[in-house]
Design goal:
With 219 residues, the protein is mainly beta. The chain folds into two domains: 85 residues, Nucleic acid-binding proteins (OB fold (Dihydrolipoamide Acetyltransferase, E2P), Beta Barrel); 119 residues, no CATH class. 5% of the residues lie in helices and 42% in strands. It has two helices and 17 strands. Strands 7, 8, 9, 10, 11, 12, 13, 14, 15 and 16 form a ten-stranded mixed β-sheet that branches. A hairpin with a 4-residue loop joins strand 2 and strand 3. It starts with a strand and ends with a strand.
């Protein structure tokens, strides 16, 4: 199968790898893995806001909510968004849902929260049908680091989301900013513990001009 894919995020992983997330022109979320099912190397030339023509196969035995995984067979750079279109324009044109307001709205309202404010899903609480999505917060998020860069949503109950993108972290992300959120892979930290997928912030987009390239595509 061959599709044009707009790269949306580049997220830091372990073992010198990055997770590359994108969206096809018909609005499907994809995660770009190599032919062996591995994440991309840290020095990959994939970058947010680029467009690529990707020939791929589906990864066998995807486990929900991580249903986006595809295995790249070949790829060709095709440019970027046309200069007049933002990422927000691109996803709204394709009727991609955007969660708005409080972080409790994320992932079909299935996110549970620890006492320290970390969000997660588990099988007992319900599993959403995908592991990535877009969110516009109704309040500014404030950086407050703890075991890495984190952003807090102002509320009487702790809501703190770990940042895993590669952009330079800002002290504040203004209300109304388009954010990309995701769920990490299933993981247990202790023996006998129920596996969880932890909520993370993959990146954000300003609402101005998203492209500084001349090889624009008519998206």
């Amino acid at each position: 199968m061959k599709k044009i894919v707009l790269i949306l995020s580049k997220t830091q992983m372990n073992n010198n790898q990055v997770c590359i997330g994108g969206l096809t022109l018909n609005g499907r979320y994809v995660r770009l893995l190599d032919t062996q099912g591995n994440n991309q190397p840290e020095n990959t030339d994939f970058a947010p806001k680029q467009a690529w023509e990707i020939e791929f196969t589906e990864r066998a035995n995807n486990v929900a909510p991580h249903v986006e995984d595809i295995l790249i067979q070949s790829r060709e750079r095709k440019g970027s968004l046309k200069a007049s279109m933002t990422i927000k324009d691109f996803i709204e044109k394709r009727n991609i849902p955007i969660w708005r307001g409080h972080p409790d709205e994320l992932f079909d309202k299935l996110i549970q929260w620890t006492a320290s404010g970390s969000g997660y899903i588990d099988k007992n609480g319900g599993v959403p049908n995908h592991s990535v999505g877009f969110w516009i917060s109704d309040k500014a998020l404030t950086r407050k680091d703890y075991k890495g860069v984190r952003y807090q949503y102002p509320t009487t109950s702790w809501r703190s989301i770990k940042f895993k993108g590669l952009e330079k972290p800002d002290d504040t992300i203004p209300a109304g900013t388009l954010l990309r959120v995701s769920l990490a892979r299933w993981k247990s930290f202790n023996e006998g513990e129920e596996p969880k997928c932890w909520l993370q912030l993959s990146g954000w987009y300003d609402l101005g001009n998203q492209s500084d390239e001349v090889d624009d595509l008519p998206f």
